[in-house]
Design goal:
- The complex is a heterodimer of chains A (about 110) and B (about 290).
- Chain A is α+β, with helices and mostly antiparallel strands and about 110 residues long.
- Chain A has helices at about 50-60, 65-75, 80-95; strands at about 20-25, 30-35, 45.
- Chain B has about 290 residues and is an alpha+beta fold.
- In chain B, about 25% of the residues lie in helices and about 35% in strands.
- Chain B has helices spanning about 15-25, 110-125, 155-165, 225-230, 245-260, 270-285; strands spanning about 1-5, 10-15, 30, 40-45, 55-60, 70-75, 75-85, 90-95, 100-105, 130, 135-140, 140-145, 170, 175-180, 185-190, 205-215, 220, 265-270.
- In chain B, the strands form two sheets. A nine-stranded mixed β-sheet of chain B has the order 3-1-2-4-9-8-7-6-5. In chain B, strands 10, 11, 12, 13, 14, 15, 16, 17 and 18 form a nine-stranded mixed β-sheet that branches.
- The N and C termini of chain B lie far apart (about 45 Å).
- The chains are: A alpha+beta (about 110), B alpha+beta (about 290).
- The interface of A and B includes residues 27 and 44 of A.
Chain lengths: ~110, ~290
């Protein structure tokens, strides 16, 4: 929960849910989303090199979207507004796939 | 009793259960001479196996028997329990990570058949072998796996191969066994073949895996790594894929398969042209 507004805004501290395991398969990285199996195609979130870096940097600690942006700025030649946009996008992907701890945080 | 399944020797203990296996379709062809070699793993029926409070991983009710099966875990041990309709004590089997699996007694053939499949799936994951829900044909000395949800037409498609592709034969129609051996991917027939009585212990190198879906036209496409993973993973034993330890093992088998063998998605009609479409993609148009 955000300390300023009390909602899940960009200031809210988040934590990756450690039940999700980043797996490498023949050079590709993905997270297998556990759901009903035995049926149709399984659901995965595919990670590119940048996502892998973010995931490994942030796993196990609390972070905010600002931290994601900073990692992007430290590691890639991107301008601040692109980094901010990409960071928000990455956080949204994690949230949409339930890869964060519930309640956006602890 | 000694069985050789996927090239691995398993000892089955329990007088009543061995008697049943002797009379059940599927198992006799896998029996080998007791003195031939020592078993790599063992299933002991008729044991006293208590079922503690466990965390359920997967359960289902059999359409044929009405029995409810539950796969669960507790403290690094895995339990398969089967509840009959009569409400009596369930059949219980326990896998503790070792090569000896203990179970209570069982006198129902379908429970015994499934228990051995579950036992094989648990033990096999640790040694790079896994049953995979599929129908498999052999052509030019190589195996082709057809996968898909129940009712997608796996058996229909393999039957079309037998009718329209010369030198094609059925190896198994429900649960062949995928094996990574010395780095190579192979497929074995098994005693589990669904409603089709097709039981062969033979081994063939895997040529391709094809995921099927019904469509108004025939079209085949080779899948990239991630899609190949998504296509194969649901066909592995569903109970095991709810557990990280088993998932790790199955993913390593899957990685090997995907790195060596093409995986396709075939959208198809139930016709001979569909069989030729998949055949030509895998073996060429010769």
């Amino acid at each position: 929960m955000c300390v300023f507004c009390g909602f899940l805004c960009n200031f809210a501290a988040m934590k990756i849910n450690p039940v999700n395991k980043l797996r490498e398969i023949v050079g590709e990285h993905l997270i297998l989303l556990q759901g009903k199996s035995g049926g149709d195609m399984s659901k995965v979130v595919a990670f590119n090199e940048t996502s892998v870096l973010l995931w490994e940097s942030l796993l196990g600690r609390e972070f905010e979207t600002e931290d994601v942006k900073q990692i992007l700025l430290d590691n890639y030649e991107v301008d601040e507004s692109t980094a901010a946009k990409d960071a928000a996008e990455w956080v949204r992907t994690l949230r949409e796939n339930d890869l964060l701890m519930p309640e956006g945080g602890k | 009793m000694l069985l050789k399944i996927a090239g691995r020797l398993v000892r089955v203990e329990g007088e009543r259960e061995c008697g049943l296996l002797n009379s059940m379709p599927g198992f006799p062809v896998f029996m080998v001479d007791e003195g031939s070699a020592s078993a790599q793993w063992t299933v002991r029926f008729g044991r006293n196996v208590a079922l503690p409070e466990t965390e359920e991983l997967y359960s289902f009710v059999s359409e044929d028997t009405g029995h409810r099966s539950v796969f669960s875990r507790k403290d690094g041990k895995y339990y398969y329990a089967c509840y009959c309709l009569d409400g009596g004590d369930p059949f219980v089997m326990r896998y503790d990570g070792s090569a000896v699996i203990d179970a209570t007694g069982v006198n129902d053939p379908s429970t015994l058949r499934f228990a051995l499949w579950m036992a094989f799936a648990c033990w096999g994951a640790g040694v790079g072998v896994a049953p995979v829900h599929s129908s498999v044909v052999v052509h030019r000395g190589q195996a082709v796996l057809f996968l898909g949800e129940s009712g997608t037409g796996k058996s229909t498609h393999t039957r079309l191969w037998l009718q329209h592709i010369p030198d094609a034969r059925l190896l198994n129609d429900d649960s062949p066994i995928l094996a990574v051996e010395e780095g190579h991917v192979a497929v074995y027939g098994s005693p589990w073949s669904g409603k089709t009585h097709c039981y062969h212990p033979d081994r063939f190198p895997l040529a391709a895996a094809v995921r099927l879906s019904q469509a108004p036209e025939n079209r085949i496409r080779r899948l990239g790594t991630i899609e190949a993973f998504m296509a194969l993973q649901p066909s592995f034993p569903p109970g095991l894929s709810q557990d990280e330890r088993f998932t790790d093992r199955l993913v390593s088998v899957l990685s090997r398969v995907i790195s060596q063998v093409p995986v396709y998605h075939l959208e198809c009609l139930p016709d001979g042209a569909a069989a030729r479409t998949s055949h030509d993609a895998i073996f060429g148009t010769r």
